[in-house]
């Protein structure tokens, strides 16, 4: 007898509130629940399933590596990890790579490295971390405190010291906080959980200039915006602003858990042997799958396809917005798109999500007022059109 949603309440810690449906199978950009009902997946596992469900090349990579070597520990290195690191170095600004298991761990490593490098070079006072309000950088106590959303960090006792927050896309707000004691500024080029809000070119250029002025390291959190989601391998490439450290995860493994921190040799040298680590990070299974995922994502047809698919989805969403008086703004980059609901529908993003599921399409919320779309980078035009038709029915329900 299959498990049901009710079993979650009986056996699981109640920190999530999952939907009523229980998906059991996926293929491409479609999933099926226990009753056999089909759904078009516009959520992508929260921007994780970068190549959809059960992509044959990823399944082959997992199967092949699964028959060779799963885990060997960081007492040794391994070939898939070295191959993936080499690929990431060749395709980005980075010269060194650290592998872990999630975006939170990648940001934890980035923040620890930034503080250690700054302290070793300039002294103990240079430890301040600056982050944007309404940002999200993970759920470890350090990263959730750095993220500028008190609803996630309050209630757990005293928070780590030396963390301050500025307004996103407001350079004057950052300028008022940054000083010679600042170790780093961490920022999402596109705020994901905070509402799918892209940074402006002027803002990111200004942040880079301020970091240079005060000898602070610039960290780009590209956990959600990276791995082809904008139509470039990483969003920093779209802005032409290069960070000192970059965190990545989610779509990196195409659904298999993996995270990474990318940086320069000059910065990386401060994490000498024993200063940071992870048991599972860089294991052969994860890096083999991620290596294949990146090889597919970096194909010119994949990246160019992201831009074309983005235009198709945005045009469809605009047509829905023109028909139903619900949408205030459509924003984002590539296949990370947010639909801001009008004030009279504030707090209703979850209602849209639930209505969409009933209509057979999976979408996401990014806060109470934004509906988020993060589908597979290789979703077909037919799946886009069919999904949009179901999304329209969901919005129709909202105004009924």
TrEMBL record:
The gene is aruC. It catalyses: N(2)-acetyl-L-ornithine + 2-oxoglutarate = N-acetyl-L-glutamate 5-semialdehyde + L-glutamate. GO terms for cellular component: cytoplasm. This is Acetylornithine aminotransferase. One of its GO terms (biological process) is L-arginine biosynthetic process. Its main location: cytoplasm. N(2)-acetyl-L-ornithine binds at residues 139, 278. Binds 1 pyridoxal phosphate per subunit. Homodimer. Pathway: Amino-acid biosynthesis; L-arginine biosynthesis; N(2)-acetyl-L-ornithine from L-glutamate: step 4/4; Amine and polyamine biosynthesis; ectoine biosynthesis; L-ectoine from L-aspartate 4-semialdehyde: step 1/3. One of its GO terms (molecular function) is identical protein binding. It is found in: Cytoplasm. Pyridoxal 5'-phosphate binds at residues 103-104, 136, 221-224, 279. The modification N6-(pyridoxal phosphate)lysine is found at residue 250. The lineage of its organism: Bacteria, Pseudomonadati, Pseudomonadota, Betaproteobacteria, Neisseriales. NCBIfam families: arg_catab_astC, argD, PRK01278.1, PRK05093.1, PRK12381.1. InterPro entries: Ac/SucOrn_transaminase_bac (IPR017652), AcOrn/SuccOrn_fam (IPR004636), Aminotrans_3 (IPR005814), Aminotrans_3_PPA_site (IPR049704), Class-III_PLP-dep_AT (IPR050103), PyrdxlP-dep_Trfase (IPR015424), PyrdxlP-dep_Trfase_major (IPR015421), PyrdxlP-dep_Trfase_small (IPR015422). Its cofactor is pyridoxal 5'-phosphate. It is an enzyme of class 2 (transferase). Keywords: Amino-acid biosynthesis, Aminotransferase, Arginine biosynthesis, Cytoplasm, Pyridoxal phosphate, Transferase. Belongs to the class-III pyridoxal-phosphate-dependent aminotransferase family. ArgD subfamily. Its EC number is 2.6.1.11. May also have succinyldiaminopimelate aminotransferase activity, thus carrying out the corresponding step in lysine biosynthesis. Pfam families: Aminotran_3.
